[in-house]
Design goal:
Elements (H helix, E strand, L loop, with lengths): L17 E5 L3 E5 L2 H10 L7 H14 L5 H19 L2
Antiparallel strand pairs: 1-2
């Protein structure tokens, strides 16, 4: 039985990119878990918490093929949503 080659991290993409418009941070398009993980680690606001950690872990697992790619996308969207909620209170 032949082993399937796994795509490189940058080649793992979502069906629909995440289009971010965050006040004070401008516009970003995240095409997959690799983009999202870089964004979360290097450009994320100072608000960290459960949703942020879940999104980071989901992206890492998606890149290691142990979690679904679209599940990671949902977790990133949840983190963004909750981040906006926290900054508006």
């Amino acid at each position: 039985m032949q082993q399937q080659e796994r795509p490189e991290a940058s080649q793992i993409v979502w069906l629909i990119p995440v289009d971010l418009h965050i006040e004070g941070q401008g516009h970003r398009i995240l095409r997959g878990p690799c983009d999202a993980l870089c964004y979360l680690v290097h450009e994320w606001s100072s608000i960290h918490g459960l949703y942020y950690e879940r999104a980071k872990q989901s992206c890492i697992e998606a890149l290691h093929h142990t979690r679904g790619v679209e599940e990671a996308r949902r977790d990133v969207l949840s983190a963004v949503e909750h981040s906006v909620d926290q900054t508006s209170h």
